[in-house]
Amino acid sequence: MDLKPVTHVLFDMDGLILNTEDLYTIGFQKVASRFGKEFTFTLKSRIMGQQSEEFAASIIEGLDLPLTVEEFLTETRLVFQELFPECKIMPGVERLIRHLHQHKVPIGLATSSSKLTYDLKVQKHTQLFDLLKYKTWGSSDPLVKRGKPYPDIFLVAAAKFPDNPPPEKVLVFEDSINGVRAAHSAGMQVVMVPDPRLDRTLAPEATLILDSMEDFQPELFGLPSFSNISPISTI
Questions:
Q1: Do 57 and 171 lie in a common domain?
Q2: Does the annotation mark 12 as catalytic?
Q3: Catalytic residue among 2, 14, 175, 199
Q4: Residue in 2, 12, 130, 215 annotated catalytic
Q5: Could you tell me if residue 2 is inside a domain?
Q6: 69-83 and 20-33 helices cross at what angle (nearest 10)?
Q7: How many structural domains are present in the chain?
Q8: 163 annotated active-site
Q9: What is the per-residue pLDDT for 2?
């Protein structure tokens, strides 16, 4: 592995910080079931990281659903209004975010979610997400012209850091193939924490692939080691 020191960190959200990818699967399958279709993991892998209208169009085409993009989004939003507020933090993530914040490492959020769905997802985790000072919501930000796997969201997110770091100094955490490709296209290193069902050979652009965020060693990228501080309290 050719790992280089970084100074700034960007986090994806769905499936990386929060377990919302599981909730997306429930919602999409509920719609697909009405038409006798199955929302497969293969299709899920293709759409992860896309913006709202993009993934809706991909699912409609992939499953041949007799719905418009707006109809699909309207129907799934009703499901997600109930599911998203119950989402949980993924293992190891809170520890890392609090650690980086305590050591004054600039950290930000780069999610394809809209601001509306973001607010639904984080309502029980606002104290943690407040630590991610610089936020980009891909489906709501007019500067993000294209969703992942295009680099737009990470370039926009990195530009929000006041000192405007070069891409090679930014480390991205992702769980999806599209996210990994987007970060790589932006010229950034990317740590992937994928769904265990994912074929890892499909993400050759990943700088490092981990089974869990609990396995991440910050010092590998020149960041402060966990051993440098006393245990961090959680919410």
A1: no
A2: yes
A3: 14
A4: 12
A5: no
A6: 130
A7: 2
A8: no
A9: 86
